[in-house]
Amino acid sequence: MTSPQPAAEQIAEPAAPAVSADHPGVDELFAVLAYGEVAAFYRLTEEARMAPDLRGRINMASMAAAEMGHYETLRDALERRGVDVVAAMTKYASALENYHRMTTPSTWLEALVKTYIGDALAADFYLEIAHSLPEEIASVVRSVLSETGHSQFVVAEVRAAVTASVRQRHRLALWARRLLGEAVTQAQFVLADHDELVDLVMSSGEGLTQLAEFFNRLQHTHHSRMQELGLA
Amino acid sequence: MTSPQPAAEQIAEPAAPAVSADHPGVDELFAVLAYGEVAAFYRLTEEARMAPDLRGRINMASMAAAEMGHYETLRDALERRGVDVVAAMTKYASALENYHRMTTPSTWLEALVKTYIGDALAADFYLEIAHSLPEEIASVVRSVLSETGHSQFVVAEVRAAVTASVRQRHRLALWARRLLGEAVTQAQFVLADHDELVDLVMSSGEGLTQLAEFFNRLQHTHHSRMQELGLA
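ok -> structure tokens follow
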């Protein structure tokens, strides 16, 4: 994902981030991400039961373990900010659990695609807002992002399957579209309930002046993920 | 666990380990431990569904994630030794899965006790043989051991429950005894099928000249764990 370079006069301006470190939306952002990591952990391990072999189960377990590493980064950051972590996370339980309930995979390939798209959507979301956050906040976000390479094992397996079967390709392309749709729906519910988060997202970055634009951008990067998986 | 100090003439002897690094039992030891970590990962996450709250689910998920960290240490060591990791692990699937099937907890407290006893038994086993292994092997074993502190959260919760209820205490004491019995049974099956492992255990350490003595020692350290949990 490449962003347009800022014009020279913008570079000359003071490098103050658009959002201050004590913006209340930061606590909410970390809390929803933290719940997301724990929810992803449990979903990955449940969906791994569909793995055809031990190797697949091990790969999913490693990815799930990485989610808990991300969770611990977010928990530590919330604790440093004096937030009651579990209470803050609990507010986001229903949106995240609804997303997973609405997107329960019925095959191993659907589980793999969900893992990959889910990781990628989270990464896109972080990247959209990270650059306008103060350094101490951005560094937490970056370290949560840094391990998503785990899901690369998915690409080889999905590409092999969709190269072998056009029917499988159409089926998984529809599935991936549904994953994006549900993620956007639940993200909108979350934003509707949390003004601090809307304010954080709205005040982030040059281009991010409208939520619609933000979601359009997610759609665009989603498309490039579909191409990576051989689904577009 | 304190071991008797070796006599002075023993210290004067050359410090060569009792087992060489290319003993075939080392591959088998790492493989059974590796399968054990992956099996523990999946069991912990399944049993965590009984947690009464989000905090309990998070604690279990962190412990499970730590198991995958141990797995990765063992996998790397096996790969350095030129072993086909997944194939080597698969030989131990039935013993480990049988152990878990025979010890499926029916309450959250049983799940907690199983976690703690399981971690402790694995640690006891490692400690029994680690000191006679060559340094490169012992360091793998030590780094797998080093994170078992995660299960300390179990102690507070179990002690509180058994202090409040004598019935609960008796029930969990029986449960813990059953866990030890099943672990010993499955360990004996594993040893019966793998001469290289028997040879490794038999040639480990001064006191470890007989398997019966080895199992007696496990029983003894198990008792001290029962005391820690308030069950003995």
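Residues 24 and 196 of chain B are 6 Å apart (CA to CA).
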